Amino acid sequence: MENIGKYIGSGLCSIGLGGSAIGGGIVLGCVVYSIGRQPSLENKLFSTGMIYFALIESMGLFSLIISIIILYG
């Protein structure tokens, strides 16, 4: 019974990976759209977009680490 709880908890923590993937896609899609509208701001938009993308992906990595800790800890 204890293993079932670990699997369920690990699976629920893995939902954060999908959320971070969706969020990263939205951010980068908006960056590409914005660069298309304002090509003169390409450097600023790209650097800001990469910072936000890194923050979003770090949440996904935290979710993965917690999921692994629950599963094997």
UniProtKB/TrEMBL annotation:
<keyword id="KW-0496">Mitochondrion</keyword>
<keyword id="KW-0812">Transmembrane</keyword>
<dbReference type="GO" id="GO:0045259">
    <property type="term" value="C:proton-transporting ATP synthase complex"/>
</dbReference>
<feature type="transmembrane region" description="Helical">
    <location>
        <begin position="12"/>
        <end position="35"/>
    </location>
</feature>
<dbReference type="InterPro" id="IPR035921">
    <property type="entry name" value="F/V-ATP_Csub_sf"/>
</dbReference>
<keyword id="KW-0406">Ion transport</keyword>
<dbReference type="InterPro" id="IPR000454">
    <property type="entry name" value="ATP_synth_F0_csu"/>
</dbReference>
<protein>
    <recommendedName>
        <fullName>ATP synthase subunit 9, mitochondrial</fullName>
    </recommendedName>
</protein>
<dbReference type="InterPro" id="IPR038662">
    <property type="entry name" value="ATP_synth_F0_csu_sf"/>
</dbReference>
<dbReference type="InterPro" id="IPR002379">
    <property type="entry name" value="ATPase_proteolipid_c-like_dom"/>
</dbReference>
<comment type="subunit">
    <text>F-type ATPases have 2 components, CF(1) - the catalytic core - and CF(0) - the membrane proton channel. CF(1) has five subunits: alpha(3), beta(3), gamma(1), delta(1), epsilon(1). CF(0) has three main subunits: a, b and c.</text>
</comment>
<keyword id="KW-0813">Transport</keyword>
<feature type="transmembrane region" description="Helical">
    <location>
        <begin position="50"/>
        <end position="72"/>
    </location>
</feature>
<keyword id="KW-0375">Hydrogen ion transport</keyword>
<dbReference type="Pfam" id="PF00137">
    <property type="entry name" value="ATP-synt_C"/>
</dbReference>
<dbReference type="GO" id="GO:0015078">
    <property type="term" value="F:proton transmembrane transporter activity"/>
</dbReference>
<dbReference type="InterPro" id="IPR020537">
    <property type="entry name" value="ATP_synth_F0_csu_DDCD_BS"/>
</dbReference>
<keyword id="KW-1133">Transmembrane helix</keyword>
<comment type="similarity">
    <text>Belongs to the ATPase C chain family.</text>
</comment>
<dbReference type="GO" id="GO:0015986">
    <property type="term" value="P:proton motive force-driven ATP synthesis"/>
</dbReference>
<keyword id="KW-0138">CF(0)</keyword>
<dbReference type="GO" id="GO:0008289">
    <property type="term" value="F:lipid binding"/>
</dbReference>
<dbReference type="GO" id="GO:0033177">
    <property type="term" value="C:proton-transporting two-sector ATPase complex, proton-transporting domain"/>
</dbReference>
<keyword id="KW-0446">Lipid-binding</keyword>
<keyword id="KW-0472">Membrane</keyword>
<dbReference type="GO" id="GO:0031966">
    <property type="term" value="C:mitochondrial membrane"/>
</dbReference>
<feature type="domain" description="V-ATPase proteolipid subunit C-like">
    <location>
        <begin position="8"/>
        <end position="70"/>
    </location>
</feature>
